[in-house]
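Journal club side-thread
Mid-discussion, someone asked how the predicted structure for our own chain would compare to the paper's figures. Pasting it here so we can look after the session.
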Amino acid sequence: MKIVFEVAKIRITVLVAFTTALGYILASTSLESFSLYPIAGIFFLACGAAALNHFQESKTDLLMDRTKNRPIPSGAVSSKSVLLISLGFLILGSSLLLWKSNMLALGIGLLTFFWYNAVYTPLKKVFSMAIIPGSLVGALPPIAGWVAAGGYVFDPKILLIGSFLFIWQIPHFWILLLMYGKDYDKGGFPTLTNVFSVRQLKQITFCWLVLTIVMALSINFFGILNFYVSNIFLVVICAWIFLQSVKFLRSDNEKNVNKNMFIRINIFTLLIITTLSLDKLVKLFLA
């Protein structure tokens, strides 16, 4: 089970489940209609995509210090076994969505699977800015949750949430790049650390962090939140992450500084997801 959890990249795929749940909750009209099946379906598809990614990148994982101890390069499991795990998750997730959700949610889930493994994974081996098109992977799960609950796929509210998660992933990855740029070089990946200086990359990352904050603040103007306290809390956490971003920009390229910023941008996103979810759940409970 430890190997299965590792090849499923459980820490990342749990976040996918949270964002899917966010979309589902926001589109829900009552607590009685709430179902975990669509959320579980997208989660299992994400696990399958993560396992297939382990198979696809096993050779480059062996070259990098950060990834050389993953199950395939370390010899803990065979490539064939990981493919079978991926296939099992793919079948399980698709079956749940087909059985307990709708075809549109299934289609978005499979599109996410395809985009991650057939577009982003090979693209990042040849294109240093592959994270930009690749960020579509993070934008689609909340939309899948939204349509699973009966929401309109092109509703501006869920498109805003998807856009926020799309933009957030870009500085999130570039902060990671500042931490492990040399390791990515060992793996043969083209990186922006070979195009820009550390200072330039920090400045670019800061601009994307500000754009992420602006997108988060714009949630206040789309009628998504139901209580003033939620609006106020959203402003507070945006102010907090802005101050942290300024500190990050002004700092030297110290590993601890980059690591702390990486943790804080993750906390920020989790706080946004939690605020939006609790706000809607309280409204449904009081209705």
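Post-session note: The CA atoms of residues 210 and 242 lie 7 Å apart.
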